[in-house]
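Deliverable D4.2, example record:
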Amino acid sequence: MTDDCLFCRTAAGDIPSQKVYSDDHVYAFHDINPAAPAHILVIPRKHLSSICDAGEDDEALMGKLLPVSYTHLRAHETG
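Output generated by the structure prediction step:
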C-alpha cells in the first residue's frame, strides 16, 4: 500500500466505500460517481500504478480480477 494512492487507501478502509467484495488480494466497491447503473470498481490490493506494472509474479492476481468483476457486475445488474 502507498499512502498517496486513492485506491490503496480505499481498499485499506481509510477512505469510506460501499464494499461489494473483498478478499486478501482483491477489493471491489461501487463507484462514487457512477457512469452506469451498475458501476463497480475491482482493484488489486497490491499497489500497481498501471496494469503495465504487473509482472509475471502478478499473473494469478490479474487472473482473479476478471472473474470477480464478472460475478459481481452480473449480480448487481440482475438485482
